[in-house]
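Example record

The entry below shows one chain as it appears in the dataset: sequence first, then structure tokens.
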Amino acid sequence: MARKKKERLDFSQMGELRQNPFADLAQSLGVAPANAAPAGDEPNVNSSSATHKPQPALLIRKEKRAKGKVVTCVYHLLDPHSYLKKLKTRFGTGGTIQDDVMELRGDHCEPIKDFFRAEGFKVR
């Protein structure tokens, strides 16, 4: 059976949407639009450092799994998801996060220590 070709809608002649359809509703409720910031209220770039929690020293160990396979484990990392993809790409290996512990396949202890020291972490 042949597939039907999907019909595409042509929006090129419509131009831009220049009016917010909910602007009148926002005014009647007394609510400021979501994209407008109050005057003089600029976000403070340095405010994130005040809420930053101190990072404990990272513990990086080499562990053996079933059938003699070696994995490198990184303990005490507060947000392991943000670094997992970077490390997997850099070392060309697989990895996962289990119980807040980042595990990378293979023996990568020293390169991982160097990576986190360059990022500003204390490493044991």
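Notes for this example: The mean pLDDT is 80. The longest strand covers residues 59-64.
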